[in-house]
Amino acid sequence: MANGTENIAEYSGTEQALDPDKLSFRGITDKISGITERRTPPVWFVAFGAAFSLFLVLLGSIGYLIWEGVGIWGLNNPVGWGWAIINFVWWVGIGHAGTLISAILFLLRQRWRTSINRFAEAMTLFAILCALIFPGIHVGRIWVAYWMAPLPNQMSMWPNFRSPLLWDVFAVSTYFTASLLFWYTGLIPDLATFRDRAKKKIKKLIFGILSLGWRGGNRQWRHYELAYLILAGISTPLVLSVHSVVSTDFAVSILPGWHTTIFPPYFVAGAIFSGFAMVVTLTIIARKIFSLDHIITLDHLEKMNKIMLLTGMMVGYAYSIEFFIAWYSGNIYEQFAFLNRAFGNYSWAYWIMISCNVLIPQIFWVKRWRRAVPVMFVASIIINIGMWFERFVIVVTSLSRDFLPANWDYYRPTFWDISTFVGSFGLFFTLFLLFIRLLPMISMTEIKGVLPQADPYHHCPGGHNE
Amino acid sequence: MNKNDKKNGQKYWQSLDQLTDSPEYRRYLLERYRDGNGEPDNSFSRRSFLLLMGASLALAGLAGCRRPVEKIIPYVSQPEEIIPGVPNYYATSMPFGNSAYGLIVECHEGRPTKIEGNPAHPSTMGSSDILIQASILGLYDPDRSGSARHKGGEKTYDEFVAFWNSLYEEFSKNRGEGLAVLSESFSSPTLARLKNNFTGRFPKAHWATYEPISDENIFKAIKNITGEDLRPVYHYDKADVILSLDSDFLQTESENIIAARGFSEKRNVAKNGGTMNRLYVVESAYSVTGSMADHRMRLASNQIGGLLIELAKHFRDFPEFKAINTSGGFDQDWIKSLFSDLIHPRKIAIITVGRNQPFWVHELAFAINSALGYMENTISLKKIKDASLPDRKSLNDLVEKIDNGSVKSLIIIGGNPVYNAPSDFRLKSALKKLEHSIHFSEYYDETSAVTEWHIPRAHYLESWGDVRSADGTLSVIQTMIEPLFGGKSDVEFYNLISSGEDRKGYNITRETWNDIIKGGNFETEWRRVLNDGLLKESSLPDEQFKLKKPRSSIIEDISYAEFKPSKDNLELTFQASKLYDGRYANNGWLMELPDPISKLSWDNAALISPATARELELNNGDIIQISHQGRRLEMPVWISPGQADYSIALPLGYGREFAGRIARGVGFDTYKLIDSFNKFLLIEASVTKTGRKHNFANTQDHNSMEGRPIVREADLLEFRRSPSFAKEMAEHPPLKSIFPDHDYSRGYQWGMVIDLNACIGCGACTIACQSENNIPIVGKEQVSRGREMHWIRNDRYYVGDTDEPQIVHQPVACQQCENAPCEQVCPVAATTHDKEGLNTMNYHRCIGTRYCSNNCPYKVRRFNFYNYVKDMPEVIKMAQNPDVTVRSRGVMEKCTFCIQRINRAKRNAKKENRTVKDGEVQTACQQACPAKAIHFGNVNDPESNVSKLKTNDRNYDLLGELNIRPRNSYLAKIRNPNPLLKGYKPDNV
Asked: Which residue from A162, B499, B530, B556 has the fewest beta carbons nearer than 10 Å?
């Protein structure tokens, strides 16, 4: 993948991003493998304990939900969807950054992605797992939720292919499968490294199986890189399609505030926005704890901040164009829906959304703040809060006040709405902590590939052309 | 295999019992192989062992899947008239105060499940109201009393009979000295006969009749001016102008069903030569009738008499009124315009006064009605026969007699006087002074708790008896089912106390009818009465209205208090609520039905006007203490636009202490404030804020239409100018769909039209639907979370400013869209279109994503958030309609145009090799509607009623601009304001 003259120019970029003085091939291997090989640090156990407790909260909440019914949530008659769907869309959105970084930036030869892609991909998978819980459990009869799948049955009955919920099932599961394959493919050379370094037999066996007989031969590399390229190609449209399809849950309906053609691009931009915010949050923690400053440098973070600034303005544009279209449409229901968002009974949520998603990212115009870790850490969290509220505003305000005013009602979450959402973080972090403990959280192979030493034209002490 | 069989005997399982090795099967084996020789071979060959194991594994879940074994007892001889699955319909009557309603009851395999009005009966004309519809649930109420009690301990009825017989002997000797009866009012030949027997046997006994809510003032007024016991029957179907003074004649006054029918017929512009009636309403609290008004004046109830005097001043017949000064400061223009309308030479006018108004207001109103000269057209006066009329004084006398010791034993027949008698009677303490007290009632209630004996009373559907309805028509109460809880019917109890004999109600009733049916074969005629539900041509003739007193003498009785309510001198009025006087308090359907005006479900509230609320600094839910002459009550307020200022309306019937699981502790007992003298209109009350709050369950949070074309309305002149105004109220681009159309050109295509000009908003449709479609009660907490389950709801919007708003009602059920948004989004295709245009629900397929509900612009879909039928008592299950699935948890449900009724009609038509006739299928809501606002039928048949209505100018589709093509359409509302009145129309309709 990395040859040809055009790469030389890029290297100058990478050289800034990675600190060559601290990095050697061996150093990278030691550093990354070492994280999983050393004794588990106590802080990991503390974190894992906390995350796992939250995961138990999720299980408990789901158990009670199945026992009692969705009545335990705050849903009511006009507001048929609440936190469950908001959480679903939010988690799916977060799951966007991983594949975007891996696939699209890969195709665009944005080589700075190498430090964060593994990380982001893992985050994607876990976020999608969290997301997938919600559509499954939010239905009234959880035990027959599988009827949404096109399974053969004695009634020879198909699901309704006109329903966007069904499209969701396909879109999200396809995305999950592709992301999983992509992630796993990327892991193979690193798993082989782990296998080679493993001292215990069982570990060697497991990594041996997982690395699928990787030997690092020239042919293998050629096939591998081609496969990776193809997967990147397959994944790229999925990044755009999955949230577009999720947005059709809303856009295809006739509800004012949902029924909008702008939703697919707007949702994709929002998803990238929140996905990058989540990557930044997690990256900052990980690089701090595992001292990875020299691999995930400020340049990486700054680039992500720039993307957040861009996508933040895209969603800001979407917010404003919705108002224009509502006015321009001449449709009284549309006009009301948007005025109600900004000034109605849920205006507090709207203004939280605007502040978090449109105003806060503007600080990244300032280079100093763009490179200040505490600033971006707080901002990234705020952005994700804002993105959660965006979904809240879309789902709840539109439903709570629709066509006939006699139906209007106010939606309030209950304890169980909140515990299920909080619990989903438990699942996310449990998986994430297991990941950073057991697998290479940074792609050793790809980092090595972008090191100056990997450049055939690189002049280094002891180099072959010396 | 055969070899195996020979070697080891058979190893194939004979039955599922054998496979699952149930105890029954083991016992069977023991019996069969008892002689040892035939003992089954326990040695398995390996092969047969595997075979069995395989089969066992395959069927391992079987034991868990099997339903509990229930013994089925077939009929030894099949009753001729019962075909399982096919309902039978019987006529009966529901006694109600001094009146009765003729009904048809649907029975499935011997259990009544649904009540309809009897089309042949003049009291219902095939319609019904909320109380009638809900009474079926009362039959199955598990909280009804199940046994006689003596001082709280259970006794048998026979023990009571023995007790009564000893008392009977005793009182027979002294001709009833010291004996008293407190009865409800009734109108029934048999009961009247038995009452006569009683007073004949015990001439010295005191008989009191008390009803908390009654027409006593009206009867008294008519007696004052004519000298006779007569009752008025209003003919609203003939009146062009109606003035209602505090009279909710469409909902809570007597004979409301035929009033609503007559009123709505006269409002039909097409059938009245392009015009319609005009309704003036003067009232303090917004009522259903007030919401139909063309002109409504809000006025404290105590000032209404003054307004009538002001009106009378305009008549030449009442010169003596000119001298009276009323303090009201009434709008003279309003009165003048009203007067000119009333005396309009081509219009027949009617003035009706509410039962809460003092009798002199009724007298004056009758005098004016008589002066108008249309009495014979609009109000018939009928003799009151076979009745026991309510008389507050008789209760007062009774209490006095108990207090001075001249009454020692009291029989209370029905009613719940400890709860609902005026508190200054101190009935509860009086009852404790008695030697013997007996209470005959359906529930072990507040009164039963303080009486010595309690005797369970049967529901009217469990009883034999007879009634005379308002116009005098005689009908029989026919029993539908044996008493479920062992109660005794009214006639049986009356017979016991009057003769000491415990006889069957059937025989007692027939005895009376032996005298009533004259000529012909008794058995044939009796059967005809049972079949028809009434005795034909038994209504009483109109009596001539003769003023006994000269008109001027009415004035002598008018002690018109100079009343002007203010912040410190508030007026209290008491209204019959949806629970009536509290007797239906344990009925969950009624409890959960939103009030037609306030939309409060479950609780009652002190209703105050927005201006008064501002002045007293009150908000919805603030608990206030209301004080009146030393009596105090704490209850929460609800701000009701259109309420008269400084007047507080207090619905009756709530706050029951000794009641069943539904009623207990719900709402506030407003009887505690009632005064025996002025009864339902009190003045000089004061209010203080307690600082505490109460949470209400309100089903409609938003009261304005926000300028949207939802209920489309015009006044008559506008309508004449542009008849299709309703269609022009919504603008939209050309309606095109991306989906191909269904073929709706063949077969039946069901459709509905709801006439908003007829609908009075009473809620009968909601309860009828609840009864027909097994809709669960969800409770106050769930309603307050917006999860009520009613398939047809009544939206109520206020129009105009908050102090003087108009009200419009709009019943909304599933609109059965042809381009249904719900169908498209269901991922499992659980809601689909059938070829007759119905948007059907497949409950078994539904997984509960609620997407359909989100995408429904009318929000008529209802979701089972919990298993709402989980805790349903066994006996209430008997009230369920077997033709309709009971929905489980997690399933969406909604109106399907009573598809079970459609299918029944189609089956019947197919058997007779014909098509379904127009009007043969009636939906439950349509059938119940007293105003006949709902029309249903085949829109593919151009001759059907519904097709014709859909071509009406006023016809419009609600939210039709969304291109969902609802099958249900509305006829726009028309009001008929008086053009002479300035500012008659609210600004922003």
From this structure: B556
pLDDT for A336-357, tens place per residue?
A: 999 999 999 999 999 999 999 9
Best residue of B865, B869, B887 to probe chain A, by most A CBs closer than 10 Å: B865
List, for residues A3-55, the tens digit of each pLDDT value: 333 343 344 344 445 555 567 788 788 888 888 888 888 888 999 999 999 99
| Rounded mean pLDDT, B891-901 | 94
SS3 B150: strand
Average pLDDT over residues A388-402: 93
Rounded to two decimals, the ipTM of the complex is 0.90
Confirm or reject contact between A81 and chain B (CB < 8 A).
yes
Taking CB atoms and an 8 Å cutoff, what residues of chain B touch A396? none
Cα dist. B679→A220, B212, B301, B637 in Å? 99, 9, 13, 21
Residues 778-797 of B with CB under 8 A from A: 782, 785-788, 793, 795-797
Please give the Cα distance from B321 to B364 (Å, whole number). Answer: 11
Does residue B696 belong to the interface with chain A, where contact is any CB pair within 8 Å? no
Note whether A59 and A423 are within 8 A (CB): yes
Count CB atoms within 10 A of the CB of residue B319.
Answer: 12
**DSSP assignment, residue B294?**
S
Give contacts of A399 with chain B, Cβ < 8 Å. 854
B606-608 vs B973-975, strand pairing mode: unpaired
- A157 CA: distance to closest CA in chain B (Å): 9
Transcribe A29-88 into DSSP letters.
HHHHHHHHHSPPPHHHHHHHHHHHHHHHHHHHHHHHHHHH-GGGSS--SS----HHHHHH
Residue of A139, A345, A396 to mutate for B, most B C-beta atoms under 10 A: A139
- Tokens representing B518 are 């004259």
- Report yes or no: B240 and B347 within 8 Å, Cβ to Cβ: yes
CA-derived radius of gyration, chain A:
24
Contact of B279 with B146, CB cutoff 8 Å:
no
* CA nearest to B357, candidates B424, B426, B299: B299
Q: Pick from A142, A147, A401: which is nearest to B828 by CB?
A: A147
Chain A residues in contact with B787 (beta carbon < 8 A): 71, 76-77
The answer to whether B474 and B535 are in contact (CB under 8 A) is: yes
Residue B133 CB contacts under 8 Å (≥ 6 apart), including other chains: B115, B589, B764, B767, B768, B770, B771, B928
Instruction: Measure Cα distances from B31 to B11, B24, B25, B36, B567 in Å.
Output: 19, 11, 10, 10, 88
Give yes or no for residue B983 having a pLDDT over 80: no
**Is A399–B854 a contact, with Cβ atoms under 8 angstroms apart?**
yes
Residue B134, strand partner residues: none
Q: B207-220: string of b/e by CB count within 10 Å (b at 16+)?
A: bbbbbbbbbbbbbb
3-state SS class at B508: helix
B-chain residues near A249 (CB < 8 A): 851
Domains, chain B, with CATH or none:
2-65 (no CATH), 230-383 (3.40.228.10), 565-698 (2.40.40.20), 724-729+749-975 (3.30.70.20)
Residue of chain B with shortest Cα separation from A255: B855
Contacts of A464 by beta carbon, 8 Å cutoff, 6+ apart: none
Rounded to an integer, the average pLDDT of B919-939 is: 94
Query: What's the rounded Cα separation, in Å, for the pair A129 and B521?
Result: 82
- Cβ distance B756 to B933 under 8 Å? yes
The answer to whether the beta carbons of residues B542 and B376 sit under 8 Å apart is yes
Say which residues have a Cβ less than 8 Å from residue B544's Cβ, sequence separation at least 6.
none
Tokens of B909: 């038509």
- Window A:402-421, CB contacts with B under 8 Å: 402-410
Check if B700 contacts A (Cβ < 8 Å).
yes
